[in-house]
Design brief:
Layout lengths: L25 H9 L11 H7 L6 E5 L5 H8 L3 E6 L2 H13 L6 E5 L12 E7 L5 H13 L1 E12 L4 H5 L12 H6 L6 E7 L2 E6 L2 E14 L1
Parallel strand pairs: 1-2, 1-4, 2-3, 4-5
Antiparallel strand pairs: 5-8, 6-8, 7-8
The structure holds S-adenosylmethionine.
């Protein structure tokens, strides 16, 4: 299965901005989403499905939810989902996809700018962040805030592109490779006394490449709050 398959290089249309600061603004993402009807594949991310199938549902927060494929999948598994993103365009798409999928009552959207430094309101049984790559100088702070939104006993799932993702290199590389992270970086941002790290892995998955399928490498960290 290909899932977080940008399928047209790193997202269709507009390139990522040169300035890292511009990579996390509503203007950038609203413009990026508005350029096409669908930026991502529309399928839930493989790592989410892999690690959360069969987990007892509760309240979930999907951070950087994009067009809502993960939120819709979670809602279909019985979760009550808050889909959070900086982009209003993405959130409108998420809400529409949830209604189309018959889970509109289980998905709430919330516009929030993670770079604002404001705490994430509420607490959740699951916080998931898929392919959100915070800037290095904000990494620990942002992972810390995601973790603070997890209830005791709840799960934090952080997935990103691994720095040694050959598939991305074959597709021309990430414009900001310094943002890609290893599992150790996520685990280091989670204090040992508060977290049990259940998974810290760098698995591969097949994606479509310029000449057939190629292997992409992910960073996956699943942790349970004590
Ligand atoms: C690479 S996309 C991943 C989308 C989705 N999770 C997926 O896997 O397809 C990153 C997402 O993070 C969102 N984002 C970027 N900066 C943000 C910020 N400052 N606060 C909240 N969300 C942000 C973007 O709008 C975008 O939807």
């Amino acid at each position: 299965m290909t899932d977080h398959d940008h399928s047209h290089g790193h997202g269709a249309g507009r390139e990522l901005p040169d300035d890292v600061a511009d990579l996390f603004t509503q203007e950038t993402w609203d413009a990026r989403y508005a350029e096409s009807d669908r930026l991502w594949s529309g399928r839930p991310n493989a790592r989410l499905v892999e690690h959360l199938t069969g987990v007892t549902p509760g309240d979930a927060l999907d951070v950087g939810a994009g067009e809502g494929a993960d939120a819709v999948w979670l809602a279909g598994q019985g979760w009550m989902v808050t889909a959070l993103d900086v982009s209003q365009v993405a959130l409108e798409r998420t809400a529409a996809h949830a209604v189309e999928a018959g889970v509109g009552l289980r998905v709430t959207t919330r516009r929030h700018d993670l770079m604002s430094g404001a705490p994430l309101a509420g607490t959740f049984d699951l916080v998931s962040a898929q392919y959100l790559h915070p800037p290095s100088d904000r990494f620990d702070d942002i992972i810390g805030r995601l973790g603070a939104a997890v209830r005791p006993g709840g799960l934090l799932l952080v997935v990103g592109h691994h720095p040694e993702d050959e598939a991305m290199k074959l597709r021309g590389g990430h414009r900001h490779p310094e943002l890609l992270f290893e599992p150790e970086k996520v685990a280091a941002a989670l204090p040992d006394q508060d977290w049990d790290v259940l998974v810290a892995d760098t698995p591969t998955r097949e994606v479509s490449g310029p000449e057939g399928s190629i292997l992409a490498r992910d960073t996956v960290v699943l942790a349970r709050r004590r």
